[in-house]
Each structure stands twice: as structure tokens, then as C-alpha cells.
Automatic annotation (TrEMBL), chains A, B:
The keyword Transferase applies. It holds the Pfam family HTH_Crp_2. The keyword Lipoprotein does not apply. One of its GO terms (molecular function) is DNA binding. Keywords: DNA-binding, Kinase, Transcription, Transcription regulation, Transferase. This is cAMP-binding domain of CRP or a regulatory subunit of cAMP-dependent protein kinases. Transmembrane segments: none annotated. SUPFAM superfamilies: cAMP-binding domain-like (SSF51206), Winged helix' DNA-binding domain (SSF46785). The lineage of its organism: Bacteria, Pseudomonadati, Pseudomonadota, Alphaproteobacteria, Hyphomicrobiales. Residues 142-216 form the HTH crp-type domain.
DNA sequence: CGGTAACTTGAAGATGCTCAACTTGAGTGG
DNA sequence: CCACTCAAGTTGAGCATCTTCAAGTTACCG
């Protein structure tokens, strides 16, 4: 079994135990697994990509090298829903940690033309747009420490929804540099923000595992309201 | 005729001459027009709202009053596609200028259950998400002047697509304060950024009309690439 | 156990903010 | 048509957040 096999690797990050490959199974689609090192481009042409383990991101790089992450992907997420729905994705997807992806030929998806499937994808897209809106609020109107707090609350909530949180702690191997590119900050400032959160006893980070020590206070600091994530509980 | 009637008002901003109410007509939906002053809440319950004239925005306000605009709406845009697709919209919509909206009862839309309609809405949603991604890049990685340049390029492109640009100039009555809330800046800084763009002879603003004096240079400054807007030309 | 990526810290500087005063301009009523 | 009013725009000065540059230190991986 895939799940057992992955869990056997001791340092393998954030596996979705609720078998996200259920997506492929539900619609009877062939899926090939692939393991990818961290900091690599992930998308291959003519395939849809389902993230099974690890964390990835969508990002854009400006001509002068400035990089902005526009979304963080966790197990169970589809990396490129636009590839399925619109035959194109206008972004790159990179791994933030070592990842396992499930690859499904686009041709097979197109062939089955399943109404439930496009419905499910569109529901996911609406949720992703809600997340994007919240990122816009963060980037526009929250200061560094609030931005970081909000992102950690979001990740906690999303990881919990797929069973990857124990207590208030979860695996977190994203580098400070990548956090910086997600939060619109520099890695130096991310480091200071994290130190400040540690000093305030709001978080604890050790051995690639992050613990939210005082989630209520963290959520208050971030003005985090999970309503935007709850709405479409998004099966499939 | 609606279009003629609106165009009769001399100071009425950015009317979509290509009759955006074609949306309602195409699907044979009843639409009531309503005129709304600037800086007002726009959404009413149990209705879908189509923007016919003027400019509006989706926004969120934090507890301490900080406000972030997450999207700018122009004639032809649907203010609350989520209200139609998911029976809820987790944002407020405000008018930025005086507006005319077309209101369509949600019950009537739900009743017809037209597949083309949900398809069209989902296509619009994907385009909006592409715009949101670009806003994330701007807010995260562009400095003030680049952010403003990029937004002006975006508005130029979108307004041109609905026939509201003459030469390189279009009606623009959004206040500097609202620009600030869209760009994650203060109105004071927006003022300085606009002055700088004026001094560089990149834009000209007079009598509520904005002219892009050197669009190629402005687009280079913003690193603007209209691909994300072109993709789904979005009829309906 | 050596090498490299990631993290940490300090100091100086840039971008953008806050506060405050003033100017301009559009809409209103006399 | 003018005076009045209030919202919007403009400008200056000082300050906060965050950046840049640079020099370490730690931790992971082969």
C-alpha cells in the first residue's frame, strides 16, 4: 500500500493518512506516483498532479529574480486544477520539501467527462480563491508578525482537516527563505519574526516539527477566522 | 434602452457600451436596475449583482479599521459569483464610484439550472483567481510605484476589453484612498507615487480621466504581462 | 566528518507610515 | 452665479518596519 510505504520513511514529511489518492480511485483514473526532491519544478506536461506527501507551492518569479509564492499546497491538494479545467496553468509549481505526487494523464480525465469531477474541481477552486483573498489581506494590511501568525494558523487548520496535526503540532520543513517568498518579506526578517513568536511563547519549532503553544492568542494576533476555510469542506 | 439612458448622464462613469446586461438576456433572466452612490455597500441578500456602470470593489476590514480591497470590479463583472455558485459570498462589495447594478433574483437562477451558466461563471472565477494571483505578486514583491503601474495596466487592459478605453485614456474616478486600500499603501504614499508617475510623464490625470502617456514604458516598469487576462477571454 | 544549505545576528539604510497642516475642487444652497 | 462646505488631494517632517549587506553559527546530508 502506498500509505504504508511512505510512512515507512522516517523523515518523510506530512503524509496525508486519509489516502488522498482516493481522488483518482473515486473516478477510476490511473495514477502513477513520483517522488521529487525539495526545491524542484513539479509540473509535467499533459498530466494532472495530485500532491500526496510533502509541501509544494505555486510561484512566480519576476525578471530581476524577485519571487512570490501565491499558494502553498499540502497533501490532498491538486497542484494544477487549471490544467484539467482549462488545459493550461499560468504558474509554476515547486516543491518546498521532498514530495510525492500522483500523476494522472489529462487525456484520461478529459475522456471521462465526469460532471461530478468538474464540480469538485470548481469547488476546490472557489476555496483556493478564498485563501488567495485572505493572502491579499495579509500582504496588504498585516505587518510581518501578523502575516506569519496568519499563515501558521491557515496551515494548522488545513493540515488538521486532512489529519496531519497531532495536538497543536505538525511537521513543518519549509525554509525561512520560502516563508519569506510566501509572506512578501526577506528571509532575514522572517527569522526575526519567528524569533519574536518564539520569545512570546506562541510557537515552538524543533526537529522540523512546529507546535502552536497558544493557538487562541496566535489566532487573535493574526485576526484569523477560519470561516473562509470551513465553508466548502471540499470532499474529493 | 438602458445603455442610451445611462450614457445620457454626462458625468456617469465607465458605462459598458457592449451592453453587459446581455448576461441576463442570454439566459432569459429578469434584471432590475439600481443606481447606487459612491462608497456604499452594494450586496443585497437573495440577489446576484451584475455591475453595469461605474467601479466597485470587494473588500475586507480588519477589527482595527485596516481595510484591504481584494478585487476591483468594472462594468460587465459579476459582483458576487459565489452567491450564485455556492449560495454565499464571504466578502463585502462596495461602490468606488457612482454605480448602476443589475439585480437578478438568485431563486430564478437556481431554478433554471443552466449548465452553460455555471460553466461561464466558473470560467470567470478562474480569471478572477488569475487576477488575484497577480495581486499577490504585486503586494508581495513590487514596490509602490510598480504596484500602481501594474494596477493601471490591468485596469487599462480590462476596460479596453469592454470597450471603455479611447486611445490610451479611460475614465477613472477612484479616490487615492481607495487606491491605497487596493495597493496595500497609505493614501499619502499613493499621492506621492502618482506624482512620481506624472513627473515621469507616464500618466496624465485630469477631470476624472486617466491617460497612459507611454504604455510600453509603464508596462515595462510594472513587468506587466497581459497573458493572465487574455487566456479566458470570458464571454457572457 | 566534511561540505553546504539553512539559520542567526548586527548595523546601516530604504521604503513607506503617521501626524499635521494646507490647498484644491466638486457639489449645494442662497 | 457666487459663497460655502466638505471631501479629496498635496506636501513636509519625523519615525517604524523591513531591507540590504555582511559575518558568523548551526544543522543536515552524503
Amino acid at each position: 500500500m502506498l500509505t504504508a510505504q511512505i510512512n515507512g520513511l522516517t523523515d518523510f514529511p506530512t503524509v496525508h493518512p486519509a489516502s488522498p489518492e482516493g481522488f483518482a480511485r473515486r473516478f477510476d483514473l490511473p495514477m502513477r506516483e513520483r517522488s521529487i526532491p525539495k526545491q524542484q519544478d513539479l509540473l509535467l506536461p499533459d498530466l494532472a498532479h495530485l500532491l500526496l506527501a510533502g509541501q509544494a507551492c505555486r510561484n512566480r518569479v519576476l525578471r530581476d529574480g524577485r519571487r512570490q509564492i501565491t499558494a502553498i499546497l499540502i497533501p490532498g491538494d491538486i497542484c494544477d486544477p487549471e490544467a484539467i479545467l482549462a488545459q493550461r496553468a499560468d504558474y509554476a509549481v515547486n516543491t518546498l520539501t521532498r514530495c510525492t505526487v500522483g500523476e494522472i494523464p489529462l487525456a484520461r480525465i478529459a475522456a471521462l467527462d465526469h460532471h461530478d469531477l468538474t464540480d469538485a474541481l470548481n469547488r476546490r477552486l472557489r476555496r483556493e480563491e478564498a485563501i488567495a483573498r485572505e493572502w491579499i489581506v495579509s500582504l496588504g494590511r498585516r505587518v510581518g508578525i501578523e502575516r506569519m501568525a496568519h499563515l501558521l494558523c491557515e496551515l494548522h487548520w488545513r493540515l488538521a482537516a486532512v489529519g496531519l496535526v497531532i495536538g497543536d503540532s505538525f511537521e513543518m520543513r519549509i525554509t525561512q527563505s520560502d516563508f519569506a517568498d510566501a509572506l512578501g518579506l526577506t528571509s532575514v526578517h522572517v527569522n526575526r519574526v519567528l524569533k519574536s513568536l518564539r520569545d512570546s511563547r506562541l510557537i515552538h519549532l524543533h526537529g522540523g516539527r512546529l507546535t502552536l503553544l497558544d493557538r487562541p492568542r496566535l489566532e487573535r494576533l493574526a485576526q484569523f477566522d477560519p470561516a473562509y476555510l470551513e465553508t466548502s469542506a471540499v470532499p474529493v
